[in-house]
Design a protein that fits this description.
The structure is a homodimer of 490-residue chains. The first copy, chain A, has 13 helices and 27 strands. Chain A is an alpha+beta fold and 490 residues long. The first copy, chain A, folds into three domains: 273 residues, Bira Bifunctional Protein, Domain 2 (BirA Bifunctional Protein, domain 2, 2-Layer Sandwich); 97 residues, Anticodon-binding domain (Rossmann fold, 3-Layer(aba) Sandwich); 71 residues, 2-Layer Sandwich (Translation Initiation Factor IF3). In chain A, helix 2 packs across helix 5. Chain A is globular and about 80 Å long.
């Protein structure tokens, strides 16, 4: 069968685009830079949302919803925020259309807004403007709020899931009585993200602090989880921020503490987005299509009946239908594809392309022997299984696949993490092999910028678990207390 | 204790606003017409979403996501749609801000879009433009897609939940091979809405067809569920539309049928929104606050420990905490409020205001007797309950409350539904009593308009279950085959 995807080692970027579109995850829309998330892709996102939402609630958070629009003046209030944040935003200037004399419709020039509204690129400003009225006393703290929402950043070069003008995300915005609490919250949520990435997405991540240059605009500290994609590039998969009192000061949010003294409130914010969908694809998939971890797969098992004539069709469908019912009853997400409009070979290829973890097929010989053919997507192993063991084997295999995907990704990440001490060697390996590099850096923005300008690699983070290991900056030879994580990144 | 709410019979509209804000459901934001949905309100919406989403999935639907923005030209493509649909929309004209020389930021005049983008007021156009590429053959049909999203309609007079510039909703958009299937889908989804309204919201509804004048712009038939609020005004709580081939023709969406002939696709769309939150408030609540049906209440049970000194505090908290654990284990949504910063009386009033269905309170005498004081929000009945029966009594009482709320609302709706044959009598009763009216109408748009102009009442729907009952139009005396439902409406 002709390959439907470009091979990864031929053109990784093309492979990614092909796969996202052909596996029915997403497609480009008629609106520049905005994607359509198709049902198959959206079903994965829903499972991500559900798992994250439960983790947020288990750590004491509640959901709320704030306006899509932000008055332009709000962006000017926090100086670092307005300076540092990209200004590519969708700007609403009018509020009415009218029928045009030439036919069609046009913008009504009389319906111009006094103050333009910005479609939220992130909600710190509107939320902190709201918190001013919610917070008077220490009794009102902490506020632990999350929002699931769409946001817009007018990116010039877009790629499905990885960088789109509109994307879906969650943004947590918390308010605390002390710096320690806000910092602990930011650290806690990074742990939540790391746990989600590793246990649900089967994607190993490095946790760490961003350098001052790479911090979120308005943050005193930014933490991130970084994952290594198959092509040797890093992907920032989630961030959390300790915002200090910056937004509280900009929006005058104060509280009376237990001693009766007025103080500004301390803040954190944290988010992950549909970008995780891109990370999921580039962590596990292969030249034949998606490979999905069972915990996030829309269907964990697909069943295809095999037959050559109408009589066999009826028997195979009935047999397959019974297997489906058994697996559904046992709590698995299972799909029976008994359409007569497509051949089994087409279906096999389709579900490989869509990354269904386990495929079952059954025809007359299986019925005779009371077996089913079981194929797992990750290793391509096949076996004939007595159906009496079906539920137990499927349960065990789904767990094995989840674990195998993580182990493979971890082994790949480790094999592509290089400790390097010479800038020359770093540059050579970056081009020849890519991956994560652990290197000494002198801690200056100048050296950081030089590395970026000369190699397009960036300091991804200062890993939390980097041991104290005094050395010399690979670029300047100046002293460095520990190694940092460097890579080219998405 | 001073009443925190305006009484309903003093000023219903003020009572509603007070309640929504003071019960912490929602508030107005800094952006004209856009609301903030606060955590308590959002938690109710989440439960509505979860129940509806499950019902959509049980009827074969899947979720997807389409762009927030719609190119202006798309609105001109379906003639009825552009004519009939309100043109109060948020229009994006620019895509970049820049730092102003005067300080602050301003819109960059060089970043003007070639074609303006409209923030979606509804997504028929962008979705049908997308479906064109998804549909070639009858094998690709039906498409049963739903989207959870925010939409914007630039309303001039807004009210929290009932009419806001931005609101949250779901919009289903389905594509079918035949008119019959599309019509059956539209009818099915109205049934889903009615079931949800009655079984979850405990809100009785009348199902029916809209008159041609009141149809959705671009629809051949619109169905709605109509509920009667406490002040005698109707509220349209959900709609579904049979769109015929209008959008398929406008966006050239065709398929090859089983006979190999090209045809345009048939469509339905259907939606409910955060407006349901307003309907929920105005169906059950009273002068002391919200009354929530247990199936949608963020907390079904709240527990308040009672004590007079530190020793009692410790004992009462421990006792209450044990009750909380038991109820949580039994699967109830339960909250323990053991804060020492607020008195029991304050807590009682607060949870009455927030409509928690069952309140438990326990102090030293309860511990002694191994009892708990149980108060139900809807009837205000109190009882002392031996704690050994706790789970069973709570389960039974939650069901009783759910049923009682529905029964009360149904009795109120029935008591306020008047069969009327004289236009004069109709006008008098409309002013004195309000409510639903079942009257004969001659079927013309002229008479419909006259009723609306003269009384501000509108034909809400032609009920599905209206029996054939020939009569004479109450306005013109012309023949009418059956009665229609008329009311003033939100």
């Amino acid at each position: 069968m002709a390959k439907v995807l470009t091979a990864r080692d031929e053109n990784y970027s093309q492979w990614y685009n092909d796969l996202v579109i052909k596996a029915d995850m997403a497609e480009n829309s008629a609106v520049r830079g905005c994607m359509v998330i198709k049902p198959y892709g959206y079903s994965i996102w829903e499972k991500m949302q559900a798992a994250l939402d439960q983790m947020f609630k288990d750590t004491g958070h509640v959901n709320a919803y704030f306006p899509l629009f932000i008055p332009k003046s709000f962006f000017s209030k926090e100086a670092d925020h307005v300076e540092g944040f990209a200004k590519e935003c969708a700007v609403v200037t009018h509020y009415r259309l009218r029928t045009s004399e030439k036919g069609g419709i046009e913008v009504d020039p009389d319906a111009k807004l006094e103050e333009e509204l910005i479609v939220r690129p992130t909600s710190e400003t509107i939320i902190w403007n709201t918190y001013r009225n919610w917070i008077q006393s220490y009794r009102d703290l902490p506020i632990l709020v999350n929002q699931w929402a769409n946001v817009v950043r007018w990116e010039m070069r877009t790629r499905l899931f990885l960088r789109t003008a509109e994307f879906l995300w969650q943004e947590g915005h918390t308010a605390h009585a002390t710096a320690q609490e806000a910092m602990a919250e930011a650290r806690q949520m990074l742990e939540v993200y790391a746990t989600f990435a590793q246990e649900w997405m089967a994607m190993p991540v490095i946790k760490g602090s961003k350098t001052p240059t790479e911090r979120f605009a308005g943050a005193l500290d930014t933490f991130s989880i970084e994952a290594l994609m198959q092509d040797g590039k890093a992907l920032q998969a989630g961030t959390s921020h300790f915002l200090g009192q910056n937004f509280a000061k900009a929006f005058d949010v104060r509280f009376t503490n237990k001693q009766g003294v007025m103080e500004h409130v301390w803040a954190s914010s944290w988010g992950v987005s549909t970008r995780l969908m891109g990370a999921l694809v580039m962590t596990h998939s292969d030249d034949d299509g998606l490979v999905l971890p069972p915990r996030l797969a829309p269907f964990q098992v697909v069943i295809v009946p095999i037959y050559k004539n109408d009589e066999q069709m009826e028997q195979s469908r009935a047999y397959a239908s019974e297997l489906r019912a058994r697996l559904a009853k046992a709590g698995f997400r299972v799909k029976l594809d008994d359409r007569d409009t497509h051949k089994p070979g087409w279906k096999f290829a389709q579900y490989e392309l869509q990354g269904v973890p386990i495929r079952l097929a059954a025809g007359p010989r299986d019925i005779e022997a009371q077996t089913v053919e079981l194929a797992r997507r990750d290793t391509r192993e096949k076996q004939s299984l007595p159906i009496e063991k079906l539920e137990a084997v499927v349960a065990e295999m789904l767990e094995a696949i989840q674990k195998n995907l993580f182990d493979k990704a971890l082994a790949r990440t480790q094999a592509n993490t290089t400790r390097v001490d010479s800038y020359q060697e770093f540059k050579e390996l970056l081009d020849s092999k890519g991956g994560f590099f652990l290197a000494h850096w002198d801690g200056t923005a100048e050296t950081e910028k030089r590395i970026k300008d000369e190699t397009k690699a960036t300091i991804r983070c200062i890993p939390f678990d980097a041991p104290d290991e005094p050395g010399q900056c690979m670029v300047t030879g100046q002293p460095s207390p520990r190694r940092v994580l460097i890579a080219r990144a998405y």
